[in-house]
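lol ok so funny story. i was supposed to be doing the assay writeup but got distracted and ended up predicting the structure for this chain instead. priorities right. anyway since i did it might as well share w the group, maybe its usefull for someone
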Amino acid sequence: MASIMRKRYAQTGVRPFDPYRDLGAVAELIDVAFGDSLDPAGRAALAEMRRAARWGIFWGWLYQTGWSSEDLPPGFVWVEKGRVVGNVSLRRTPARRGFLVGNVAVHPDWQGRGIARALMEAALDEIASLGGQWVGLEVEADNQVARRLYERLQFVGVSRTLHMLRPAGLPWGGEIPRGPSLRRGRRRDSKALVDLVQAVIPEYQRPLLELRLADYHLSWERALDHFLEGRREVWWVIEEEGAVRAAVRVLRECRGRPDRLEFLISPEYGGRFADILVRRALSSLPGTPKKMIEVLLPNPDDSLVAMLRKAGFQELRVLIQMRRDLAADTPRGCSK
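and the output, tada:
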């Protein structure tokens, strides 16, 4: 940490991200670096960063108190004569000694000069100094430049996620599905939902997706938290022979973010339940045509993807989860 403090006021090169003065500059950098490639959730997050930057000193103090106790800077910036032209963000994962690298952004006028690699090396050095055992990140499958950089830094692709989006304004005229096996999720379904998500998403992939098993425990406390945040969550489950075989989470988002769906279908039941879950999810969103709806599909099932396409969803991008073990065996891999 002492070496970081010595570099805190560097005018050229790498230094730690300083929320007091860098938040607005980083928001503008992300806008310039990624431009139209940001998805709706990314644009909403960018808007929130800009709002937070306008809070000035108060936001900087709040941000600082959130991470200083763990001695983990929330990222690094590259400056050229005092101007922020590059950024990498860091955060801990719920998994023990795991870390995730967020956006790696470099201003187009400074790309190709090794800035992204320098930022990544600073992040990896800091994580290693804190005793981190592994580092994860996500990269778009068609971003060949970034993928080559991460591979040179010994990251290995371990899984893929399909990101789909249903445009706003698209009409929905489907019927509300009914049947004895489909019902609304209840508190007693929590253990079944945890078992289901563990069956659908392999253990090695969960930390990279920041999956928290607590998110699958249905409770009035969780419903109250969502209410206070201006959100609304509903679960629908399909139960056969006393066991939950499939489920869908319907999340009505706030502050301009797209509504979200999350599907959990046991692999052997994908073809049977994909259609009814998609129709039930869409019919659960009042005013569906007015907002975008997004869905992330880890290890997507072909029948579910086909049903989503039929319902108006479009494939936005494929994300590759990559991992580097700092003191362990190489993780299981996937095709690149």
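Confidence is low (pLDDT under 50) at residues 1-6, 57-72, 329-333. Residues 2-132 form a domain with the Aminopeptidase fold (CATH 3.40.630.30).
back to the writeup now i swear
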